[in-house]
Design goal:
Length: 147
């Protein structure tokens, strides 16, 4: 892999990258923003990368920001993979969505409604769980909901 040159200035598309870094419903765009911002060693890009490293719900984004900051020579600690709920109250959110569907709904109906109603939840957990997302979501769907 070819090493890209790191520049000590603000990227010309900084505002666009800043918006992408703040898109809570699209971890892939945040990850792409980390990759782009990681080529520009500037206080403002470091601030965004530091925030993503410490607060992003998706570990892939946190880890990528960590590596970019480390490459800048920043004194950073690798983020922990030990997390509780990525989004507060996710179980209640999923139960509410399940209860809003007809009793005869399928897992696919549930998954689709989650994606429509709470794309932030869907995207965050899909990004964090990766290939295990459907299995995790199905497990949450299959849990009996209290009446």
């Amino acid at each position: 892999m070819e090493k890209q040159e790191i520049k000590n200035e603000l990227p010309p598309n900084y505002e666009e990258l800043k918006k992408a870094a703040n898109r809570t419903s699209n971890w892939r765009e945040r990850l792409a923003a980390v990759e782009a911002l990681g080529q520009w060693n500037h206080k403002q890009t470091i601030d965004i990368l530091t925030r993503l490293m410490t607060t992003d719900a998706v570990y892939k984004v946190q880890e990528a920001a960590f590596f970019k900051l480390q490459a800048f020579g920043e004194d950073v600690k690798k983020p922990s993979t030990d997390k509780g709920d990525l989004i507060k109250g996710v179980t209640k959110i999923l139960v509410r969505i399940k209860k809003s569907l007809p009793e005869t709904h399928t897992f696919e109906d549930f998954k689709e409604k989650l994606k429509k109603m709470r794309v932030d939840v869907y995207d965050t957990y899909e990004g964090e769980k990766g290939d295990d997302f459907d299995q995790w979501l199905k497990g949450m769907w299959e849990k009996p909901s209290r009446k």
